[in-house]
Amino acid sequence: MNEFLQNMTPYQTVGILFGIAFVVHIILGIVLKQIISHTSKTKNQWDDHLINAVSAPLKVLIWFGWVYFSINAFKGQIEVLNNVIEYIDIAPIFIVTWGVIRIVSGMEDYMLERDTNVDGDSVRLITRLLKILIIIAIGLGIAQFLGFSISSLLTFGGVGGVVMGFAAKDMLSNIFGGLMIQMDKPFSTGDWIRSSEFEGTVEKIGWRMTRIRTFSKNPVYIPNSIFASIPIETPSRMTNRRIKRSNWYSLR
User: Which of 6, 28, 108, 231 could disulfide-link 127, Cβ–Cβ 3.0 to 4.6 Å?
Assistant: First the structure.
């Protein structure tokens, strides 16, 4: 077998590898369809989100294998590929990271679709922070793989963070304002809120600003830092409503 592979030209090797990758891709698609047809009959929808999240990265990994071994086939003939092969080893890390982020997104969709008392804004906040932490951790690992000193990067990041903090003070205040809204829960998506400056229904609580739909159907975008400096009333959370006697007689 080894002699057969050694006697083949690089183009023949690439062609055979392409055929193998194509067959494996087809087989994987059939297997995934069988799994999806089985999991769709179960009551738990988490397995559906999981299969949907990992199917695309698995298919990409197959074709990455074809690209990787194809480059190896031409490694001795094209000098440029000698440098490419040194850095292409980290490509699976990006693919796996993509798959993990897709799994986190699937978990977010699963939690939001379930008919439970879990707050949707809290779920979105946790999953976003989890994605950011995953990306930062993978980024530091790749930097170490490429030969960079992580301690130097962290030191530079600390100094750069101070500089960026002064430069983007308003943006950071809005981000922390959004975190405080998620933690303190003065209002949630769907609540009716009002202040001396605005009144309407909360449609979305973002990282930087909150979108409110007024009763005239106009969207109002309010920076999250504003909510830390003004009183907010939430009429939709009222447990009782007071009716004055004069209004009661007028209603009769």
Answer: 108
